Amino acid sequence: MDIAKVPDESVFILFIGSLLHNVYYVISSADAAFKKTNDIKNN
C-alpha cells in the first residue's frame, strides 16, 4: 500500500491540523451567530 510509505507522524499532524482548523471555524461561526443574536436582543 502507498499509505505505508508515508510517515505516520505527517499523516497525524495533517489530520490534527485539519481537525483544529474545522473546530476553530465552527467556534468562530458560532461566536459570530451568538453576537448577532445578542445585538438583535439588545436593540
Topology of helices and strands:
Blueprint: H1 8-42
Keywords: Membrane, Transmembrane, Transmembrane helix
Transmembrane segments: 12-34
Oligomer: single chain
Kindly report how far apart the N and C termini lie.
60 Å
Portion in helices:
over 70%
Tally of strands: 0
Look at the structure and give the mean pLDDT. 86
Query: What structural class do helix, strand and pairing data support?
Result: mainly alpha
Radius of gyration: 18 Å
| Sequence of secondary-structure elements | H
Count the helices. How many? 1
Strand percentage, roughly?
under 5%
Overall morphology: rod-shaped
The poorly predicted ranges are none
Largest sheet properties: none
Keywords: Membrane, Transmembrane, Transmembrane helix
Account of the protein in words:
The protein is mainly α. Helices cover 81% and strands 0% of the residues. The protein contains one helix and no strands. The protein has one helix at residues 8-42. The mean pLDDT is 86.
Would you kindly provide a brief summary of this structure?
With 43 residues, this protein is mainly α.
What attributes characterize this protein structure?
43 residues, mainly alpha, 1 helix, 0% strand, rod-shaped
